[in-house]
Amino acid sequence: MNASEFRRRGKEMVDYVANYMEGIEGRQVYPDVEPGYLRPLIPAAAPQEPDTFEDIINDVEKIIMPGVTHWHSPYFFAYFPTASSYPAMLADMLCGAIGCIGFSWAASPACTELETVMMDWLGKMLELPKAFLNEKAGEGGGVIQGSASEATLVALLAARTKVIHRLQAASPELTQAAIMEKLVAYSSDQMVATLGTTTCCSFDNLLEVGPICNKEDIWLHVDAAYAGSAFICPEFRHLLNGVEFADSFNFNPHKWLLVNFDCSAMWVKKRTDLTGAFRLDPTYLKHSHQDSGLITDYRHWQIPLGRRFRSLKMWFVFRMYGVKGLQAYIRKHVQLSHEFESLVRQDPRFEICVEVILGLVCFRLKGSNKVNEALLQRINSAKKIHLVPCHLRDKFVLRFAICSRTVESAHVQRAWEHIKELAADVLRAERE
Asked: What is the separation of C-alpha 139 from the centre of its chain, rounded to a whole number of angstroms?
């Protein structure tokens, strides 16, 4: 494929993507396939001679799309949202074209410097304490990780290394192995302090946990993977109170801030805590500016060596939506979740299980776990909408998360009518 054909095929692909997004509501949200469906549909080995672009695109519709769960359908209410926007898609195209591997400033200065600035932009949108920002020669800073799980692991490894160095400084005779066998990581079932848990979007009280961690010199990592995006809205910023006690903080713009996966934002108060744990300096990666104090080599802030130009997505989205546009998007989702909550409360057969704070509603039929399991099975077998469950203590609960960028009140209303009809069927079957 030369540049001329790329121009033509690129325009065709943009049309395909735009048509897919515009027509996604008409596609069944969850696929009708069984495990192993795809292998018999494609050759056992790669072709020796090139296939045509037309054949590949035809196979996308014939082979790939039948097995796709359409996360961006307005009838997808499972898990949590995964962000999608046209500006982010365009930025990913540019990222692929530039194709740099940004393990150091010298490997592509713009890749490093835009990430530093975008993380400061985002930190200011959240009103993070200045200690977490990189500007004005601060000690902290932000970095894009691949996921919240990766950020948690990075924080854990950095905390471990920091403690080992501190203990060895005080007692040089101690070996690393002797120290590590005595280290303890304190965690809940959420692993770390969490703002917006996956099951029911509950919040740890950082104002209680934080001072204890600071007093006992315990590293405090805060995970706000889903909920963090909402903190750009002043009315939700109080949910982040206490972050000033944290050593590290993370949330996923790729969940709810219209920046396509992957883009997990992580900040630390002291970047030397990360570089002390992950520093990697072979001769071939060194460059003349690395000790100047003016630049960042992000390979020292993460587990992988290589990294993509992910900050382009943030730059495009933040500029094309503006803070006010992003705030409006968050507020619309929260409004729709409260609309669904109101519909549930009007039906005496159902109950709301926890307070609705952001875009997630946890609800169930009053009665046994068995009847709620039967309801979820009918919902997902019908494939008109898609939900997933959770357990709250001993109760089986259905989760209704506002996910799609294009979801409207009408979709929520239709989903509720569908749920009510299936609930009637379930209750009728139980009586029989």
From this structure: 26
CA–CA distance, 174 with 17 (Å, rounded to integer): 59
| 34-39: long-range pairs with CB below 8 Å, 24+ | 37/66, 37/67, 38/63, 38/67
CB neighbour class for 265 (10 Å; exposed up to 12, middle 13-18, buried from 19): buried
Q: Are 16 and 8 in contact (CB under 8 A)?
A: no
Using DSSP bridges, classify how beta strands 350-352 and 264-268 pair: parallel, antiparallel or unpaired.
Answer: unpaired
Burial class (CB in 10 A: 0-12, 13-18, 19+), 390: middle
Q: Cα separations (Å) of 126 from 132, 223, 241, 364? A: 11, 14, 11, 34
- Indicate the SS3 state at residue 99: coil
**C-alpha–C-alpha distance, residues 264 and 228, integer Å:** 11
| Residues 344-354 pLDDT 10s | 999 999 999 99
> 64, 57, 49: which is closest to 12 by C-alpha?
57
Pairing of strands 360-365, 350-352: antiparallel
Token representation of residue 97: 């074209």
pLDDT digits (tens, 9 = 90+) for 3-47: 999 999 999 999 999 999 999 999 999 999 999 999 999 999 999
Backbone angles phi, psi at 278, to 5 degrees: -120, 10
Going by C-alpha positions, the residue among 356, 358, 360, 355 that lies closest to residue 331 is 358
pTM for this prediction = 0.89
C-beta separation of 258 from 405 below 8 A: yes
What is the pairing mode between strands 388-392 and 395-401? antiparallel
CB 365 within 8 A of CB 427: yes
Q: Output DSSP code: residue 396.
A: E
pLDDT in tens, 77-120: 999 999 999 999 999 999 999 988 887 777 888 988 899 999 99
Query: Residue 260 in contact with residue 274, Cβ under 8 Å?
Result: no
The predicted pLDDT at position 281 comes to 64
CB 384: neighbour CB atoms within 10 A? 16
Task: Tell me whether the omega of the peptide bond preceding residue 262 falls within 30 degrees of 0, making it cis.
Answer: yes
Q: Identify the three-state secondary structure at position 87.
A: helix
In this structure, are strands 350-352 and 388-392 parallel, antiparallel, or unpaired?
unpaired
Alpha-carbon distances, residue 406 vs 21, 23, 84 (angstroms)? 9, 11, 10
Partners of 268 in the β-ladder: 141, 248
